[in-house]
C-alpha cells in the first residue's frame, strides 16, 4: 500500500512537470483512428463502425436487419460486416478477442451458434450472449460488437 507521503510526492512531481512544460512527448500518445470498410462512408448515426486505438480494434454493434427475420442469415451478414471492419483495420477474424452477442429471441441461440461455429472453427473468441427485449429497430434480431487486436 502506498503511504500518503509517497502519494503526495508523486502528485507534486507530476504537477511540477506539467507546470515546467515537461509533459510526456507526443510519441507516447496513443493514436485513435476511425475504421471504415472499403467503399463505405460514415452513416447518418453519430458513431464509428470501428475504432483503432494503438493495436486494439473496437467494433461497434453490427446488425443485419436487411437479411430477413431468420437468425442464420442475420448472423452471417452481421459477421460479414464485422469482417469488413476488421480487415479495414489490417487484421483478420482470428484477431478477434472478445464479442458480445445481443439476441432478441432466446430460441435463436442454437441457430446463432451454428453460424458462429462456421465463422470461428477453431480458437473462437471469448463471447457473452445476452437476450434483450429489443434492438434499435424491430427487424433486428441480432447485434454483435467485438474487440480485436492488430
Automatic annotation (TrEMBL):
Key words, A-Z: Hydrolase, Signal
EC number(s) recorded for this UniProt protein: 3.5.-.-
GO MF annotations in UniProt: hydrolase activity
Hydrolase recorded as keyword: yes
Signal peptide interval: 1-23
CDD domains in UniProt: YjgF_YER057c_UK114_family
Protein family per UniProt: Belongs to the RutC family.
Annotated protein name in UniProt: RidA family protein
